[in-house]
Write a structure and sequence with these properties.
By secondary structure, the chain is mostly beta strands. Helix content is 5%, strand content 57%.
Length: 661
C-alpha cells in the first residue's frame, strides 16, 4: 500500500529542482515583524504571519495559569464554543457549531483532536491531560486538507513538551470534595539526548452543585496520566523520537441525571498511544522531512448494577467498546526559490469492537496531500494552497456485513497579507467532510427483531467555509477579528425503509455564520510597570445557526460564548489570574423527561469564574524553588450544567505545593 503512494513525497523535490537558486543577499528584505512558529496549519514550522486561518495558540505560560487539569476543562475556560461535560471524565468540545464525539472513535466527530499532529484516537478530551504539554494550537474552521475526515468546525493540536534543559519537579495538593493530587516530572537535555515527562495521580469524591444539592456517585476512585517525550539527535538537524501517552480512570461515577441519581453505576476509561518519529533536515534547511508510525487503544466500559436503578434501564450486564488505532505519516517539505512545498502520505487503520451490535467494524484510510505557500510583494503577501485525496474502506465484520469504499478530494486556498508590520489581513476558502461510518455504509444485522442495513449510496457529510479577518499586534497589544460563513450539507440521519428496516440517509443542511474576536493588552507597558497587568477577552458570536430543513436553531449550539479575565504577574513567581467563561443559552433535547418524541427545551446560559494564584516563596540554587498555589473554581457558586440534568460542581478550592529544581 505505501509503495503505491511513495513517489508523491518527491513532488517538492522535483518542483524545486526546476527553480533557480536565489542568493540570500539578493532577496528582497521582508517585514521586520517576527512572531511565534506554529505547525498545525501547514504541518511544518511556519511563522504565524504566514497563516491564513484563524489560529489560536495557548502557550505553556497560559497552561500553567489555568485551573484546568485536562484539555476539556482548559478549552471550557477559553469560551471557544459549546462544551458537553458529564461527571466521570467525559467531555466533548465545540467550535463553530460543531463538536467532538465523546463515544466511539474520533472519525465520527466534527471537530478533530490531534496529539503532536496525528489523530488522538478519541473525541473525549477529558482523557488528554495538560501537565506535559508545551502548547495547544487551535485552527478555527476546516482542517480537512491537512488531516482528513472530521475536521469541520476546527482542529485542536495538543503538542507535547520537549526537553531543553535539566529540571525536576514534585507537587502535591488537595481541596474540596476530598480531592487529592500528586505529580512528578522533569526534563533532560544531555549530549544529544532529550526527555520531558510527567506522571499525575488524583482522586476526588462526590460534589455539591451550585444549588447546594449533593450529586452522589460523581467521584473518581483513581485517575492517572503519563506523558513522556524522549529523543536522540544524532546530528544537528536529525532526531529520532518516541512519545508515550497514557490515561486511565477506574471506578468513575456514572450517576445519571441528578433528578434520577443512580448510586452504583460506574465506568472505566483508558487511552494509550506510542509514537515513533524521525525528523530531519538538510544543513541549509532547504529540505525537511518527517516519518512517523504510531499505535494505541481507546477503551471504555460501563457497569450498571441493578441495586440502585431509578430509571429502570440498568441490566446488571457490563458493556464496553474499544478502538485499536495504528497509522503512519511521511512528509517532505522543500523551501524553493518561489514557494514552500509540502507533500506527504497518511495512513490510518481502526479496528472497533463493541459489546453491542455491530460488534466488530474496521476503517482503513490512506491519503495523499499537497500543501504549498508562496510569498509575493516583497514577502508581504502569502498565498496558501492545499489539496488532499482520501481513500476510505470500511467493513462490518461481526455480524457479517459488507465492505464499502469511497474517495474524497478536498481543496483549500488562503491569503495572508501583511499590510504593515503590525497588521495582517487574511481570507480563506476551505472544504471539509466526515465520512460515513462502517455501520452506516455496510451494516446488515437484526437486533430486537428489527433489521438494520447500511446505505452504500451515502455521501460524506460536507461543509464549505468562507472566512476573512485581521490580526493586529503592537507591543503587548494583540487583537484578532474573524467573520466566517459555513454551509453544512448532506447530514447523515437515521431513516426507516419501506419494509420497516432501519437505515441512514443524507438529509439535512445548515448554515452557520458569525464573528470571532480576541483582545489582550498589558496595561503595565505604557506606564513602565515592572508587573504585567493584562486584561483579555475572547468571544464567539453566531449570527446564524439554522437548520434549513426545519428553519429552527441547531440543537446544542450556543449563540454566544465568551471568555474574559485579568492576569497580574511580576515575572518572578507571583501571579494572580481571574477568568470568567460565559456560555449562552441553547436548545437541547430533554432526555430527562422520558417522553417520546423527545421534547426540545432551552438550557440556561451560565457564567463560571475561576481564580488562580501562585507565589514562589523560596528560591535557592542549592535546594530548588518552592511555590505555593491556590485555586477557587466556580468562584460565585454558579448553578450550571453543560448537559441538561447533569449540573457541575459548585464553588470549590484547591491548595498545592510545588518543588522544582
Amino acid at each position: 500500500m505505501i509503495k503505491k503512494y511513495y513517489p508523491a513525497l518527491f513532488i517538492p523535490v522535483l518542483l524545486c529542482s526546476q527553480a533557480q537558486a536565489v542568493l540570500a543577499a539578493e532577496q528582497a528584505s521582508g517585514p521586520a515583524m517576527t512572531d511565534e512558529l506554529v505547525v498545525t496549519a501547514s504541518r511544518s514550522a511556519e511563522s504565524q504571519r504566514e497563516v491564513s486561518a484563524n489560529l489560536t495558540v495557548i502557550n505553556r505560560e497560559e497552561l500553567a495559569q489555568s485551573a484546568g487539569r485536562n484539555v476539556g476543562e482548559l478549552l471550557a475556560e477559553k469560551g471557544l464554543g459549546h462544551v458537553q461535560q458529564y461527571p466521570g471524565a467525559l467531555t466533548a468540545i465545540g467550535i463553530r457549531g460543531f463538536r467532538t464525539d465523546t463515544h466511539g472513535n474520533d472519525l465520527q466527530g466534527h471537530v478533530l483532536v490531534l496529539l503532536d499532529g496525528r489523530r488522538a484516537g478519541t473525541g473525549n478530551v477529558a482523557k488528554l491531560m495538560t501537565r506535559n504539554v508545551e502548547r495547544i494550537e487551535i485552527i478555527r474552521g476546516p482542517g480537512a486538507v491537512q488531516y482528513g475526515s472530521a475536521g469541520m468546525g476546527g482542529v485542536v493540536n495538543v503538542i507535547t513538551r520537549r526537553g531543553t534543559e535539566n529540571s525536576l519537579f514534585v507537587e502535591a495538593g488537595g481541596g474540596s470534595f476530598d480531592q487529592a493530587e500528586g505529580s512528578i516530572g522533569g526534563t533532560v537535555k544531555q549530549q544529544g539526548f532529550d526527555f520531558a515527562g510527567a506522571y499525575t495521580q488524583r482522586t476526588y469524591g462526590d460534589y455539591e452543585t451550585g444549588g447546594g444539592d449533593r450529586f452522589y456517585n460523581t467521584g473518581v476512585d483513581y485517575e492517572s496520566s503519563l506523558s513522556a517525550n524522549l529523543g536522540y539527535s544524532f546530528s544537528e538537524n536529525n532526531r529520532l523520537g518516541v512519545i508515550v501517552n497514557r490515561f486511565e480512570v477506574d471506578e468513575a461515577g456514572n450517576p445519571g441525571y441528578l433528578s434520577q441519581n443512580d448510586l452504583d453505576d460506574t465506568s472505566d476509561k483508558k487511552n494509550y498511544s506510542i509514537d515513533g518519529t524521525y525528523s530531519g533536515a538538510t544543513l541549509n534547511d532547504r529540505y525537511q522531512w518527517l516519518v512517523r508510525y504510531f499505535f494505541g487503544k481507546d477503551e471504555n466500559s460501563w457497569k450498571s448494577p441493578i441495586g440502585s436503578d431509578p430509571t429502570g434501564w440498568d441490566t446488571g450486564i457490563p458493556s464496553s467498546n474499544e478502538t485499536d488505532q495504528q497509522g503512519a505519516q511521511a512528509q517532505l517539505t522543500a523551501d524553493c526559490a518561489f514557494a514552500t512545498l509540502t507533500a506527504g502520505f497518511d495512513w490510518l487503520d481502526y479496528e472497533v469492537e463493541n459489546s453491542w451490535t455491530p460488534r466488530k467494524t474496521t476503517y482503513s484510510n490512506p491519503a495523499l496531500f499537497f500543501l504549498g505557500k508562496s510569498a509575493l510583494l516583497e514577502d508581504r503577501l502569502t498565498v496558501n494552497l492545499g489539496l488532499r485525496y482520501d481513500w476510505y474502506e470500511v467493513e462490518v465484520k461481526e455480524p457479517a456485513g459488507r465492505d464499502e469504499d469511497q474517495t474524497r478530494l478536498t481543496p483549500k486556498v488562503g491569503l495572508a497579507w501583511m499590510v504593515s508590520d503590525e497588521l495582517k489581513l487574511r481570507a480563506q476558502y476551505a472544504e471539509a467532510f466526515m465520512m460515513p461510518s462502517a455501520d452506516q455504509l455496510a451494516a446488515d444485522f437484526s437486533s430486537f427483531g428489527r433489521r438494520t442495513v447500511g446505505n452504500q449510496d451515502l455521501d460524506p457529510e460536507k461543509s464549505t467555509t468562507y472566512e476573512g479577518g485581521l490580526d493586529y499586534g503592537l507591543g503587548s497589544l494583540q487583537a484578532a477579528l474573524t467573520y466566517f460563513h459555513t454551509d453544512f450539507e448532506d447530514k447523515i440521519i437515521s431513516s426507516a425503509l419501506a419494509d420497516g428496516s432501519s437505515s441512514w440517509q443524507n438529509l439535512g443542511d445548515a448554515t452557520i455564520a458569525g464573528f470571532e474576536a480576541e483582545l489582550s493588552y498589558d496595561l503595565g507597558e505604557p506606564f513602565s510597570w515592572s508587573w504585567e497587568v493584562r486584561p483579555y477577552l475572547g468571544m464567539t458570536i453566531l449570527t446564524e445557526y439554522e437548520d434549513k430543513e426545519t428553519g429552527k436553531d441547531l440543537l446544542y449550539v450556543s449563540g454566544t460564548n465568551l471568555a474574559a479575565g485579568l492576569v497580574v504577574n511580576n515575572g518572578e513567581g507571583a501571579m494572580v489570574r481571574f477568568n470568567l467563561a460565559y456560555s449562552g443559552k441553547q436548545d437541547v433535547e430533554d432526555w430527562e423527561s422520558g417522553s417520546f418524541p423527545t421534547p426540545i427545551v432551552e438550557l440556561d446560559s451560565s457564567t463560571v469564574a475561576d481564580l488562580v494564584a501562585s507565589y514562589r516563596f523560596l528560591e535557592s540554587e542549592t535546594y530548588g524553588d518552592f511555590t505555593l498555589r491556590g485555586e477557587i473554581r466556580n468562584l460565585f457558586d454558579e448553578e450550571y450544567a453543560y448537559v441538561k440534568g447533569y449540573p457541575l460542581p459548585g464553588i470549590s478550592w484547591f491548595v498545592g505545593l510545588r518543588w522544582q529544581y
